[in-house]
Q: What sequence folds into this?
């Protein structure tokens, strides 16, 4: 009789542990999903801002056709890949970030443009969107790390294996150029 | 980071429980001294506390915002501020965008309020909006958002309600005992004798000491949360120098906030009543000294994670003390890199900021703005009902 109670007790404890771990995993996965949606919102916002920026900049920047085209192309490519995998996307988006960075660096040569109210507002929106992308990426990666840890570490890996939780992919900065500070030459 | 919040909550909860014990003791001894029945006093104390807590829980944020005469702003009123708050909301993973309030005061300060992350507000003074650049503002907002994220706001609100109850009970209790209780105790001494007098003396001592202890506990909780909020802000912004330089400006300013009081002081980013030249380890302060907070942030040596803050903290304290629990440090293993200065956002200069802020303040007081052709900007008060106005500078008639 006693043995039966002990077995029941152990089973009960195991069941509770299972429920707690499972719920934790679900919470983490939802957080990852939510964080990804956040990145998505900001990336879409950037796609919307770029045509406006090009429209404003066009009249001022006569000699920067290449830089401007690079931004437009990078934007179109990124938008086309926006349904794809995390890895392909993060590459395209980093490309777009660096193209935009180059364009905004060139703006320094156009004092008229820098004084344009419309441009200033757009610039604030763009830099803020860039910030939001990088902050949401950080939060996403943080959440992914925690989820991956849970799916790989004992004992939660058992629960994860039984209920089909997988490790997720990081959203990484793949282009090294973005990490370097821009070089300024006074030639 | 989630672990650290929990374990810090445990630490703060212990302090709050000690405060609760104080409250119970005060109630019990008051009951004993006046009604010869401790339980009656205890129940009365708890009822008062419960009512005040309920008010504090449901109305605390609106009371605080109304008391500081803060006005809510929208995205269009100040896009940059709105963006900064949204950036920090994203970085911290807050579920909902907090409301943004402006306090029309040249003093430099900010606070956060709201009982949970779904119903939160941040308020900053117009002085802050004008004096700080984008990075500095981001550091300050990061600090405030982490108060919301770490549930400090709720904890401090509940702690201050408890403190308030203890102070009120002790104040009335001691007055009644000194001026009214003497006669009653003489009457009862014929029957009760020695025991009654001892209880009275103990009660009186408690009435005097309890509020002092309660204040010290309250301040201790508050100081702990400030370090944690600084560390989190550095992590969220990934740029500790922003907050450090903001604190430098805040510390150098001398204006005291008009609408703050002792109870609301811990809500602000710096103590609104601070005096110059305070000792480094002052027990009666809601905030750690600003100079120390700046030193820690600047000693983070390029790192931005919580463990970098922890190391910087022990460096400044000569190897002593720990501010962030080990479980939290183990959790934040993800790689955080600082944002290089070249990548920081471009922003308007000080003059533009001043104009922006004053435009915002006029607008918030319902003033209309008309730009005359001569370049003069006319501010028209809300009470002015005429269809047109004459420019005092060039004499043109402007239609409204």
A:
């Amino acid at each position: 009789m006693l043995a039966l109670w002990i077995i029941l007790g152990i089973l009960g404890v195991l069941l509770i542990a299972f429920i707690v771990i499972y719920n934790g995993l679900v919470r983490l996965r939802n957080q990852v999903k939510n964080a990804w949606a956040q990145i998505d919102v900001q990336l879409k916002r950037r796609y919307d801002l770029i045509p406006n920026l090009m429209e404003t900049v066009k009249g001022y920047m006569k000699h920067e056709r290449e830089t401007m085209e690079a931004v437009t192309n990078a934007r179109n490519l990124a938008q086309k890949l926006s349904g794809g995998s995390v890895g392909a996307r993060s590459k395209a988006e980093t490309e777009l970030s660096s193209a935009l960075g180059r364009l905004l660096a060139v703006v320094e040569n156009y004092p008229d443009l820098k004084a344009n109210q419309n441009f200033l507002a757009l610039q604030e929106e763009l830099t803020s969107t860039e910030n939001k992308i990088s902050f949401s990426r950080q939060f996403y990666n943080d959440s992914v790390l925690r989820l991956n840890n849970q799916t790989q570490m004992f004992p939660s890996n058992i629960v994860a294996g039984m209920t089909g939780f997988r490790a997720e992919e990081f959203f990484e900065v793949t282009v090294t150029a973005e990490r370097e500070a821009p070089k300024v030459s006074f030639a | 980071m989630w672990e650290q919040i929990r374990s810090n909550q445990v630490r703060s909860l212990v302090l709050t429980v000690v405060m609760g014990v104080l409250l119970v003791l005060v109630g019990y001894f008051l009951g004993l001294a006046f009604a010869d029945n401790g339980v009656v006093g205890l129940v009365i104390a708890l009822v008062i506390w419960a009512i005040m807590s309920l008010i504090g829980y449901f109305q605390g944020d609106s009371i605080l915002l109304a008391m500081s005469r803060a006005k809510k702003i929208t995205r269009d009123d100040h896009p940059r501020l709105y963006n900064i708050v949204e950036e920090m909301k994203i970085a911290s993973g807050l579920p909902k965008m907090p409301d943004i309030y402006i306090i029309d005061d040249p003093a430099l300060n900010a606070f956060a309020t709201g009982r949970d992350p779904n119903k939160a507000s941040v308020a900053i003074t117009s002085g802050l909006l004008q004096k700080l650049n984008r990075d500095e503002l981001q550091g300050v907002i990061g600090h405030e958002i982490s108060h919301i994220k770490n549930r400090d706001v709720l904890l401090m609100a509940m702690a201050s309600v408890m403190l308030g109850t203890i102070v009120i009970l002790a104040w009335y209790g001691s007055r009644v005992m000194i001026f009214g209780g003497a006669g009653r105790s003489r009457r009862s001494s014929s029957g009760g004798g020695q025991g009654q007098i001892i209880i009275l003396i103990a009660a009186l001592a408690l009435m005097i000491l309890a509020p002092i202890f309660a204040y010290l506990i309250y301040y201790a909780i508050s100081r702990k949360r400030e370090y944690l909020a600084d560390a989190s802000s550095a992590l969220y912004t990934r740029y500790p120098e922003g907050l450090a330089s903001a604190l430098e400006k805040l510390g150098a300013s001398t204006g005291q906030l008009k609408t703050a009081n002792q109870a609301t002081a811990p809500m602000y980013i710096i103590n609104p009543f601070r005096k110059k030249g305070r000792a480094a380890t002052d027990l009666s302060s809601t905030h750690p000294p600003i100079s120390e907070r700046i030193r820690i942030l600047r000693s983070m040596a390029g790192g931005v994670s919580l463990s970098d803050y922890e190391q910087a903290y022990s460096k400044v304290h000569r190897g002593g003390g720990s501010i962030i629990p080990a479980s939290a440090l183990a959790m934040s293993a993800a790689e955080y890199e600082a944002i290089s200065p070249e990548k920081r956002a471009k922003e308007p200069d000080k003059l533009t900021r001043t104009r922006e802020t004053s435009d915002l303040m006029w607008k918030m007081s319902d003033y209309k703005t008309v730009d005359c052709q001569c370049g003069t900007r006319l501010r028209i008060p809300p009470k002015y009902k005429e269809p047109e106005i004459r420019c005092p500078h060039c004499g043109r008639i402007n239609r409204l």
